[in-house]
Design brief:
Layout: H1 5-18, H2 27-42, H3 46-63, E1 68-74, E2 92-95, E3 98-106, E4 111-114, E5 117-130, E6 135-149, E7 158-163, E8 170-180, E9 186-199, E10 207-217, E11 220-230
Parallel strand pairs: 2-9
Antiparallel strand pairs: 1-3, 3-7, 4-5, 5-6, 5-8, 8-9, 10-11
Helix pairs in contact: 1-2, 2-3
Length: about 230
């Protein structure tokens, strides 16, 4: 088997640099772990090699000095899972219209609320900044996003919703800061939006009642369905 060491070293080094850590600081651990992975692969132990890579990734995760933000995008509705979201086609909103953001933080810590259970969570601070850089509003601890899991998940979906009322039409930047509840790390990302003229009208909620009756005569069954809607 051709040596995998150069490729493995490059991959692990890339992970460290992506976490914002100086490469020289981890030159020894990178080389040692890459050599260990190569030996495991040569021995046919792919599971052991994967576990060794997971160990070095955990070291990167814990040593990162701040939260990373893998991505942060405007979405049409709250994401159903990590990566399971629909991007919003525009960044224009009317005043009072909900602004939904999907974000993926990395490098966070873990709490232990119960035996065999891990907790992940963030406080959310918001700054509303004008096009010229003026801070128009600042709201600390606006909301929280949390998750409990049986695993130390390395993926987290943060569904964040802002509603800006009484704001004039114009372009703005939303500065969101996530504050890790289980470490001292924070991470900030920016979302550009535009408020346009008009009044936001929330979708009408229609309460629908379906009444179904079945009558049987001989070998024939008849189903009568009545739908009653109240707006």
């Amino acid at each position: 088997m051709a040596s995998a060491l150069p490729v493995l070293k490059a991959a692990v080094l890339s992970a460290f640099l992506g976490a914002g850590l100086p490469a020289a600081m981890f030159a020894g651990p990178i080389a040692d772990k890459a050599a260990e992975v190569e030996a495991l692969l040569d021995a046919g132990d792919s599971a052991g090699a994967a576990a060794a890579i997971a160990e070095v990734y955990a070291q990167v995760w814990e040593a990162s000095p701040a939260l990373g933000i893998r991505q942060a995008v405007l979405v049409t509705e709250a994401a159903a899972g990590v990566g399971v979201y629909n991007p919003r086609p525009t960044n224009t909103f009317k005043a009072g219209e909900p602004i939904l953001i999907y974000a993926e933080p990395t490098g966070y810590g873990y709490g232990t609320p119960a035996e065999g259970l891990y907790a992940m969570g963030f406080g959310v601070d918001l700054k509303v900044v004008s096009e010229t850089g003026e801070i128009l509003g600042e709201i600390p601890d606006l909301t929280q996003v949390e998750l409990n899991s049986r695993n130390q998940n390395r993926e987290f979906q943060a569904n964040i919703t802002y509603t800006l009322t009484g704001i004039a039409p114009g372009r703005y930047v939303l500065q969101t800061t996530l504050k890790d509840k289980y470490s001292a790390k924070t991470g900030t990302f920016e979302t550009a939006i535009e408020i346009i003229e008009g009044t936001y009208e929330p979708p009408k909620v229609i309460n629908t009642t379906i009444n179904t009756e079945m009558t049987t005569t001989g070998s024939t069954s008849e189903i009568n369905t009545t739908i009653e809607s109240n707006e």
